[in-house]
């Protein structure tokens, strides 16, 4: 059995790295804080007797050997990076629940048949480098390693440069071809309101929504806010504002389920008395039904073309990320459900609203996910919170689901 | 007479300081580039035999003595600071046209009755520090010196700190009380399309529009762009986008003349998959009729309150700057018009769409302004341009208008 207190304590210790004033964390991918988080995780794993491998994408694998080292490992994991104003659970919970599985097995001197591994995937959040889940995507051969390594921040540093800078540019080939996996499980906070609202402790994740991400630049003409008549303007921010409104409308038009967000916007030159000449912004679309997601895409393209035309703007429109809705593997979902039933936890099946490393792993490895609630459904926010009971329950389900596969 | 070639050459030499790739300048107030521009101006003035005074707001006054040193000087001037993507003429033209007046008087060994001074006003643009025209405003006793010195950049440096850093925190008291002025003239590019469209070389500026500037912060709730249902969101950027649209609508609703702009916006945390929790943005309103400007203010307040309510946002709404439309002094306007007529320049009366240091000077000193056209009416843009003929014509009008007052 899981030691819930120890798992909670590890979460709180890790949350000190990059802690923000409002009680959250800022541990953006491949920053010094991310390095400090990785170093602490590696130390804890070594203390628990694990061996460590690091691949060329900076993914970390901590391994507890099995009776049969030739069997592919049963793997769990998640990410240690956070949003700029992130919480103490998103990602790190899945990593440290995995560590707790290993510690609990050690406590019981239990030898699994297959090895057990805990993975830390690089840049899951997609905040410092887009898209999200980039390194689990490389592992799953959805992205080429060169594509992954060349992703850049908004001011031009690449993942390759930043991995090198923090010393996590590992020697291993970064795909599943060099690293077969028997099954993959990931524990995560729900990041939405459903479980808490329904009084459930565990979500058995059967599916994940599809996603499309876009980068759009509108270019008009900078000009003086005073003497430039309204009818001579080509105001890039007026155009971008109309798309923010259109994105919101598209989200509402495809209810239930659709989510549509403009999260990032950069205005140029961003001066009070200058008509904005250029605006760069992003769009994030989600839907569990691929056909609806495609309709949202068409709606967005139509809105952007209409607005560019009516405001007199040049447009650079790129879809930079797409993955179709995902269905998790039946036997893995069943292993999670069986662990839930054994413990008598209140639970429900659910569709993940967020993307997770498990989504890409599912493309190459039988995969399942375990959700626990989070307070008020709030995530990607410094106030993100969960109870020690939920945290322990999710860890227990993870342990039992992994054992079912490792000893199968 | 003015030496147009020399004036043009000085403009081009000054434009090397802070030159941008696209042919403009970035010489934000009190940066190292602004210091370099100031140093060059001071050197040129010393070479022309002027004495230099610097006041506590960093305003620079270069003085050519008159036959009667006890008379208050006839002053001209403008600013050397620019927008982030500014042009080679905005502000600097008025300063260097003033220097050319002094050089031309030297060439002619002409002694004026009253002294002649050229002023460089600190932070006219209002881009690095808001509001605009802060130091001419202190000079004209519209703002307290302490208010002026405590204006801050968006990341917290004050004018006082930055003046000290670049060595332009002068010893003189920064108001007209310590520095009486007989008359003030300012030459400037129009920054709008009217003169060029009508084939005029000179604008005789009779009035300037009033302005209102606002700082608005909407606070909603950061949350995950994936699992947060549309109907649970409090998206601060959706609110801000609606105000961008409302501001544009208010500008169009009060035609002719109204201008309405959102030039600056900062999104927090500005991450692709986070619903924006906080957005800070500015509004710039202009109108030549104070009553209409007041109506625009009421329209904005109503729009902001409605949007904050409908999106579920907290709002911090501040009007940070207001000045009523300005009428320039009759005898100064007449002196400009007489100089235009003497030279036979095609000209028209006009209302300034931009604010200028002359607007504040007009509150304490008889003041007039001279406009020259700018290509396509484009300003606050790196492509801002003017012809050597226009530049020379404006300098000649400035010289003659100043002489009319200095020898009166
Ligand atoms: N779980 C999570 O926050 N992932 C980030 C990628 C996404 O936005 O779905
Ligand atoms: N002339 C000029 O660009 N002044 C800046 C202040 C304003 O925006 O009116």
From TrEMBL, chains A, B:
InterPro entries: Amidase_Cbmase (IPR010158), Bact_exopeptidase_dim_dom (IPR036264), Peptidase_M20 (IPR002933), Peptidase_M20_dimer (IPR011650). Its cofactor is Zn(2+). Zn(2+) 1 binds at residues 79, 90, 188. Zn(2+) 2 binds at residues 90, 125, 380. It is an enzyme of class 3 (hydrolase). It comes from Novispirillum itersonii (Aquaspirillum itersonii). Keywords: Hydrolase, Metal-binding, Zinc. CDD domains: M20_bAS (cd03884). SUPFAM superfamilies: Bacterial exopeptidase dimerisation domain, Zn-dependent exopeptidases. It comes from the Bacteria. Belongs to the peptidase M20 family. Residues 209-309 form the Peptidase M20 dimerisation domain. Its EC number is 3.5.1.87. Binds 2 Zn(2+) ions per subunit. GO terms for molecular function: hydrolase activity, acting on carbon-nitrogen (but not peptide) bonds, in linear amidines; metal ion binding; N-carbamoyl-L-amino-acid hydrolase activity. This is N-carbamoyl-L-amino-acid hydrolase. Transmembrane segments: none annotated.
């Amino acid at each position: 059995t899981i030691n819930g207190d120890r798992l909670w304590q590890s979460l709180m210790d890790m949350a000190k790295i990059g802690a923000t004033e409002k009680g959250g964390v800022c541990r953006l991918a491949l920053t010094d804080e991310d390095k400090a988080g990785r170093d602490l995780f590696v130390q804890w794993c070594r203390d628990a007797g694990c061996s460590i491998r690091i691949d060329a994408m900076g993914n970390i694998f901590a391994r507890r050997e099995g009776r049969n080292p030739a069997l592919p490992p049963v793997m769990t994991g998640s990410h240690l990076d956070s949003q700029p104003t992130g919480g103490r659970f998103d990602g790190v919970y899945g990593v440290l629940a995995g560590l707790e599985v290993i510690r609990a097995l050690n406590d019981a001197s239990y030898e699994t048949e297959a090895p057990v591994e805990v993975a830390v995937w690089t840049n899951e959040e997609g905040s410092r480098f887009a898209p999200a889940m980039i390194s689990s995507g490389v592992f799953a051969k959805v992205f080429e390693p060169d594509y992954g390594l060349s992703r850049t921040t908004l001011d031009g540093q690449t993942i390759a440069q930043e991995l090198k800078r923090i010393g996590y540019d590992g020697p291993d080939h970064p795909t599943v071809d060099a690293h077969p996996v028997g099954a993959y499980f990931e524990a995560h906070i729900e990041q939405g309101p459903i479980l808490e609202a329904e009084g459930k402790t565990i979500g058995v994740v059967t599916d994940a929504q599809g996603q499309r991400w876009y980068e759009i630049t509108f270019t008009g003409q900078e000009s003086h806010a005073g003497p430039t008549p309204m009818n001579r303007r080509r105001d890039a921010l007026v155009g971008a504002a109309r798309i923010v409104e259109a994105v919101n409308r598209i989200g509402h038009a495809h209810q239930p389920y659709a989510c549509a967000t403009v999260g990032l916007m950069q205005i140029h030159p961003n001066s009070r008395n200058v008509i904005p000449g250029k605006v760069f912004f992003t769009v994030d679309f989600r839907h569990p039904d691929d056909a609806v997601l495609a309709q949202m895409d068409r709606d967005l393209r139509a809105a952007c073309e209409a607005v560019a035309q009516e405001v007199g703007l040049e447009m650079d429109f790129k879809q930079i990320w797409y993955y179709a809705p995902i269905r998790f593997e039946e036997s893995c979902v069943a292993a999670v459900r069986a662990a839930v039933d054994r413990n008598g936890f209140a639970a429900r099946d659910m569709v993940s609203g967020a993307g997770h490393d498990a989504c890409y792993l599912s493309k190459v490895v039988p995969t399942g996910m375990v959700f626990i609630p989070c307070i008020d459904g709030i995530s990607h926010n410094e106030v993100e919170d969960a109870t020690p009971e939920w945290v322990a329950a999710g860890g227990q389900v993870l342990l039992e689901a992994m054992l079912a596969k490792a000893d199968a």
